[in-house]
Amino acid sequence: MSHPIIDFADVYFTYPDGKKAINGITFHVRHGESVGIVGANGAGKTSLLMLMTGLLLPIRGEVHVGGVPVAKKTLSVIRQKIGFTFQDPDDQLFMGTVYDDIAFGPRNYGVGEEEVKNRVMKAMEAVGVMHIKDRAPYKLSGGEKRGAAIAAILSMEPDILAMDEPTAALDPKARRKLIHLLKGFPYTKIIATHDLDMVLELCERTIVLKEGRIVCDGLSFQILSDAQLLEQWGLEKPLSLQRCPICGTKKE
Ligand SMILES: Nc1ncnc2c1ncn2[C@@H]1O[C@H](COP(=O)(O)OP(=O)(O)OP(=O)(O)O)[C@@H](O)[C@H]1O
């Protein structure tokens, strides 16, 4: 097995208003793994991703990414190792054109303009957003914004992709396209989502959160097939594993 690339050791996080969001989480992710983070609303999925990317810092415990402790002074190194897409792409896209949004990260890290151009082209090619490169991000559709936001993290050439609800607000065709795209990426992937069918398809491992704690960590197929357990955590079997109560055939 390959080495751990993300390591959480007894991590706690409380928001300034006193809300305890993460309550003693320990796990690690190995290089090349794809992990789905699931749980009911408010379980702590977004908070966990934010701790992983240094957008939040633990009040207790330690997070390491690529062997580097996540702390104020290491944030610039951490952001190069792990690319984070927000639940709402509007939180990530703020430049005048898609091209400039994708170029922003590498430019900010002092990458030369020729290399920036290479990276932007490569990222746009990979995600299929070349045709919208000169458009204003705020005028794009949800699927196009999602594509631009993913390209914007790929141009940083991260080792890890951390994504918060990547299929939210996508129509079925755009969702399918995104899953196909993500399947082809060689990166370590951490995907926080309510889309359990996507987890089943993309992630060999699933971590279930409840009230800021890990309540289950194992093979996606096993976890997501267990309707009784899922119900305890406020979740439902993925549609692709459900059967029609009348004819017994699998739902699509
Ligand atoms: N900025 C904040 N200030 C105070 N409490 C917060 C803040 N953000 C989140 N919380 C609380 O922390 C807990 C975990 O929230 P988080 O957004 O991490 O959950 P989630 O699993 O991503 O939820 P969802 O599925 O609804 O997106 C919730 O109880 C939430 O109300």
UniProtKB/TrEMBL annotation:
Subcellular location(s) per record: Cell membrane
Gene3D superfamilies: P-loop containing nucleotide triphosphate hydrolases
Domain ABC transporter: 6-236
Membrane topology: Peripheral membrane protein
PROSITE patterns per UniProt: ABC_TRANSPORTER_2
Record's GO cellular component terms: ATP-binding cassette (ABC) transporter complex
Keywords: ATP-binding, Cell membrane, Hydrolase, Membrane, Nucleotide-binding, Translocase, Transport
EC numbers, comma separated: 3.6.3.-
GO MF annotation: an example: ATP hydrolysis activity
Family matches, as CDD domains: ABC_cobalt_CbiO_domain1
Main location: membrane
SUPFAM superfamilies: P-loop containing nucleoside triphosphate hydrolases (SSF52540)
Family recorded in the similarity comment: Belongs to the ABC transporter superfamily.
Name of the protein in its database record: Cobalt import ATP-binding protein CbiO
Organism, as annotated: Thermotalea metallivorans
